[in-house]
Design goal:
elongated
């Protein structure tokens, strides 16, 4: 009995792994299409064609295009949130955490342009609908305001400023190309971080200290 039970468990685990691989295959296919032409212009037929599977397979995992679009958005946000958490590990200064997060968004355009285009499209939907997805950013902004490091009229204004700068900057790099100095926080990333911190009311001397600190995404485990 014990042997049969173990065999059943192994078969169940193998089946779960196959399902997860197939689900991931469909999500990656949808990502490429959504990044290139948007959700509304993408059909289920196109998704299964890119994934190389039968149309019936799609409906074993998703009920419709809207459901796979939510899965795509969730996957990209999870990847980005994990990267932000890693790049900010050990950083206590809320202004620096916000700055590093924005630099990371710009680096994302270089490291993974397909996923970056998806992220840019997500945020084009409006910041208000994404407050839950930006909980860590909101916490950093609230901490910075409480400490007097960020001098802004409201946390909503600060949130919209950060997301606007990050999204516009990412879109600019996706459309025009980016040099590799963005991966170390230099060039355009340094310029945008400077403008952002100024807009958040961070004092000049503090901005200089933040921007002088090293930044490099090549060591991030989540992107390897």
């Amino acid at each position: 009995m014990a042997g049969k039970t173990m065999q059943v468990e192994k078969l169940t685990e193998a089946g779960q792994r196959r399902r997860e691989r197939m689900r991931r295959l469909l999500i990656e296919a949808a990502m490429r299409l959504f990044a290139r032409q948007g959700v509304d212009a993408t059909t289920i037929d196109e998704i299964v064609d890119v994934a190389g599977v039968a149309k019936g397979t799609f409906y074993n995992y998703f009920t419709d295009r809207a459901e796979i679009a939510r899965a795509v958005a969730s996957s990209v946000r999870h990847e980005m949130n994990a990267a932000v958490a890693e790049i900010n590990e050990g950083i206590g200064d809320p202004a620096e955490r916000v700055s590093r997060g924005v630099k990371l968004y710009l680096a994302f355009a270089v490291r993974n342009p397909v996923h970056a285009r998806i992220l840019a499209r997500i945020y084009e939907g409006g910041a208000e609908a994404l407050k839950d997805a930006n909980q860590h950013l909101l916490e950093d902004l609230a901490d910075g305001i409480a400490r007097g490091v960020l001098r802004v009229p409201s946390i909503e204004a600060a949130l919209h400023l950060v997301l606007g700068v990050a999204t516009t900057g990412m879109r600019h790099l996706l459309d025009t190309g980016a040099t590799r100095d963005v991966l170390t926080g230099g060039g355009y990333a340094q310029e945008l971080a400077t403008v952002l911190l100024q807009g958040l009311g961070v004092r000049p001397a503090h901005i200089s200290r933040i921007l002088a600190r090293p930044f490099d995404v090549d060591h991030l485990a989540v992107w390897k």
